[in-house]
Structure formats: C-alpha cells, structure tokens
Design goal:
By secondary structure, the protein is α+β, with helices and mostly antiparallel strands. The chain has 17 helices and 13 strands. The protein has helices spanning 6-9, 72-83, 139-161, 169-185, 191-206, 208-211, 215-225, 228-231, 237-241, 243-249, 270-280, 310-338, 346-371, 375-378, 386-408, 425-433, 439-445, and strands at residues 14-15, 18-19, 21-28, 31-36, 45-51, 55-63, 88-92, 96-109, 117-126, 268-269, 341-342, 413-417, 461-465. A hairpin with a 7-residue loop joins strand 8 and strand 9 (117-126). The two termini are 33 Å apart.
C-alpha cells in the first residue's frame, strides 16, 4: 500500500489570483457559546448561538524569482489584493478554495538580513458573497420591459405607415413561412411542441384576411406569432400569441395546448436555447433581395420596389415597415431567449451576447440607411422609423447590461494541470467543488482526454469550471 503523500496534495496559495508562498497557517474553528453564570449555582449554563466563522491566519511570503529577481511587483499585487473591498477567493494550501474577507490589519515585513522577500501576516474570515439582503435586479423583467417598448414602437409605426389598400398578402405570408422554417430548423425540440407551433402559424396565416383591413390588428398578430420561440410547447395559445392574434385562434386550439407556464421565470436548456437564438436571428435577414449575398437560406426574400410614382411609393413604404416589424420581432425574441437560458458557464453567455449584439448593430445600420431614403417624401408618403431606431438602441443597452450581470453570476472555464501522480475524476470533483456528483460534468467536458474515470491524464491540461 502506497503511503499518503501529503505534500503532493498541497495547493498553490493564492488570494484574488495573486500567488504567494506559505510556511505556516493557523485556523480558528468552534462554536459561538455564551456562558451564563448565576448566583449560588456551581455549574454554568452555556447558550449555543451557532457556529463561529472559521478564521485563517497565514504567514505568507513573496520571494524574488528568476528571471528578473524583482519581488516588488509581486509584493505590490498582494497589497492591492488585500486592500480590495469585499470578499475574495482564497486558495488555502491545506484547506483548498474558500470565500473569505480580510480582517484586522495585515502586516508585512522586509529586512536587510532577509533581503529579496516580504513576509506577510494575514487573517482571513470565511464568509459569503452577500452577508445581508441586497437588491437583486430582475434581469428577465427588465429586458422584457425593454422588448415591450421596442415592439410597441414598431407596431405603432406599422399602424401609421401601412396602407391596407396596398396590402400584399404574399409578402406578409413570406414572413410567417420564414418563422415556420426557423422552427423546423431547430433540432431536438419535442415533436409535439413543434407540430403545435407550426399549426398555430398556419392558423395565423389562414386568418390574415380577418385582420388585413386593420394595420394595428395585423401588426399585433404578426408580432405575437414570434412569441412561439420563447414559449414553444410550454404555454397556452393565449399566452403564446396574446392580444388580437390570441383571440383570433384561441378557440380553434383550445384543446391543443394544455396548461400555462410562468413565461417570465421559465428557463431554457443551454443547447436548445442557443439553437433557438441562432435561428430566430435569421429573421434579421427578412426582406433581403433574392439575389442578395445576405439572403437567408430559410426564405423571406422580397423583390425590391422601384419608386416612380405615389402608388409605388406607398407599396415600398408597406414593404419597408413590414421588414422592420419582422426584423425587430426576431431580435426581440432573441433577447428574451438569451436571458432565460440556463448557461453552463460564462463563455456560453458571452458568445450569445456577442451574437445578438452583432445583429442589433446590423439592424441599427439598416434602419439608419432606411430613414435616409428621401423618395418617400418626393411622393408625399409618410415614413419614419425614428421611434423604432430609438427603442432598438435602448434595447441594446438593456440587453448588454442584463447579459453582463447574468454572466457575472456564472463560472468561467479554466485550465487544470493534472498532477504527475494518479488522480481520479472523483478526487478532482471533491477537491475542487466538494461535490462528487460533478465528476460527470468533468468527464463530459473532457471526453476526448479522459478514457477512464479512475485516471485523469497525467501532467496534461483539462478544462474545468472555476466554481
């Protein structure tokens, strides 16, 4: 039987990612006991009011090292870490990872006799991120309110600009068909949910004649159909479509979708969520010319309208605001999906943030170019997307803020160098997370490197989550 090698189990000491050497540590543990002594009683009564916060007093050293042998920089980094407000992450060489706060007044000593090093005496107390209740912003609700403002602006603009007399049902249907194509493109969705969603789109399409003479009802019907991306297979028809369109088709599908879900709090699987975001962002290509290099493979192309008289100007205005409505609605759903995804790590959230933000910028560029079209004024056709542009810009700011706040709560992916001696996945899960069940997560993330759960690849880097 191999003897236990305690030295090989020690970890590199760090506080807030600043490394240092340790030659000794003292830990204070115990209970918070209050001793009550009463007159004429020989024994005391001890009142236990809970566990005492663990304290760690560490003798830390920062030592000059090659190639520059300049320990001043490392010393100053540790001083800065100790002076930073709030709790931080401590890698204790003997006890592992701890969330701690600095207590008392850390001291450091430098002497001529022991030149080239600084010796610190630091006391930490184990803590939590939030010791007291603090305000926690509702990121989903904040984003949803911004989405609502954006959708209302495009619906109002549609109602003002769109002329029912020049309505083209084929162009309207083109957008609904593109929604169907995006839903069908997403893999691993429940077949029943997909069938129901497609049936709902077909019903919206078949009832367009009922709302074609009312631009307001038409706009609400079209924007409502996009909510399928968030509530696909989970909500009642009224929840999915809302407003006009919900009332139009609720009766026809009252027995098709059962039950309701609190849409604001429903989270979405990371794989399905990422696929839904990617596909709904294709709607930002709706209205491209058939020969455009930016046209989507999912359809939604429209022939450009040449403006040469008042009639063609109104047809072009109808088409322009229809494009705006579809593109804004697609981005709105991408944002709502993004803040509801149950991300596995911060890198996943950052990737979605970049993906959606890029398309928001593309839409803002398109709207700016669209509003510069002076041909509408030439034929006295009213067209303005100023409110849409302003609300899309506000949505962008709220989306970035919500995603960054969400990302701050997630773990990062980091490299872990497997030691030269034998280490199992279970050992790593326990040492890193104090949770044996997370061994499956480590295996899945490193499937190409881990051939047996009992043996991590010696002296190789694998990926793990920071917490």
């Amino acid at each position: 039987m191999a003897l236990f090698d305690w030295r090989s189990k020690l970890k590199e000491a760090k506080f807030r990612d600043v490394s240092f050497f340790v030659d000794g540590s003292t830990t204070s543990v115990g209970r918070r006991n209050i001793i009550h002594e009463y007159p004429f009683q020989d024994q005391a009564y001890v009142e236990d009011i809970g566990g005492k916060a663990n304290q760690f007093t560490i003798n830390a050293h920062v030592i000059q090292q090659p190639p520059l042998f300049n320990y001043f920089k490392a010393r100053d980094k540790l001083i800065k870490a100790l002076n930073t407000r709030g709790s931080g992450n401590l890698i204790h060489p003997y006890l592992g990872e701890k969330q701690v706060a600095v207590v008392g007044n850390p001291t450091f000593t430098e002497t001529f006799t022991q030149g080239g090093m600084a010796t610190f005496s630091i006391t930490f107390v184990e803590t939590r991120d939030n010791l007291y209740p603090i305000e926690s912003p509702d990121l989903v609700s904040a984003l949803d309110l911004s989405v609502l403002d954006m959708i209302e602006s495009v619906v109002d603009s549609f109602a003002e600009i769109y002329s029912s007399a020049k309505a083209n049902i084929d162009k309207i249907t083109s957008g609904l068909n593109m929604i169907k194509s995006t839903i069908q493109r997403v893999k691993n969705l429940p077949s029943g949910a997909v069938s129901t969603a497609l049936a709902i789109i077909d019903t919206v399409t078949s009832t367009l004649g009922d709302v074609l003479d009312s631009p307001c009802d038409l706009a609400e019907s079209l924007t409502g159909a996009f909510d399928l991306f968030v509530t696909l297979g989970q909500s009642s028809v009224q929840d999915v479509l809302g407003g006009c369109s919900g009332r139009i088709i609720e009766e026809a599908f009252s027995n098709t979708v059962d039950g309701t879900v609190n849409v604001a709090t429903t989270t979405i699987d990371s794989i399905a969520g990422a696929a839904l975001v990617e596909t709904v962002l294709e709607m930002n290509k709706f209205g491209e010319a058939p020969d455009s290099t930016n046209a989507s493979a999912l359809g939604g192309t429209l022939e450009p309208v040449t403006i040469n008289n008042p009639n063609s100007a109104q047809i072009a205005a109808n088409q322009a605001i229809l494009i705006d409505l579809n593109r804004v609605s697609g981005l709105a759903q991408a944002g709502k999906l993004a803040v509801r995804i149950n991300y596995n790590n911060r890198e996943e959230a950052d990737a979605i943030l970049d993906q959606v933000t890029t398309e928001i910028d593309n839409l803002l560029d398109y709207l700016a170019e669209e509003t510069a079209n002076a041909e509408f004024l030439t034929y006295n056709v009213s067209f303005s997307n100023d409110d849409i542009y302003s609300n899309v810009n506000s949505f962008k700011a709220q989306f970035i803020d919500s995603m960054r706040r969400l990302g701050a709560t997630l773990a990062n992916i980091e490299d872990y160098l497997v030691p030269a001696d034998t280490q199992s996945v279970l050992e790593l899960a326990y040492d890193k997370y104090n949770d044996l069940t997370r061994s499956d997560e480590i295996i899945t993330r490193n499937a190409a490197l881990i051939t047996h759960p009992g043996f991590l690849p010696n002296a190789e880097n694998i990926e793990i989550l920071s917490r």
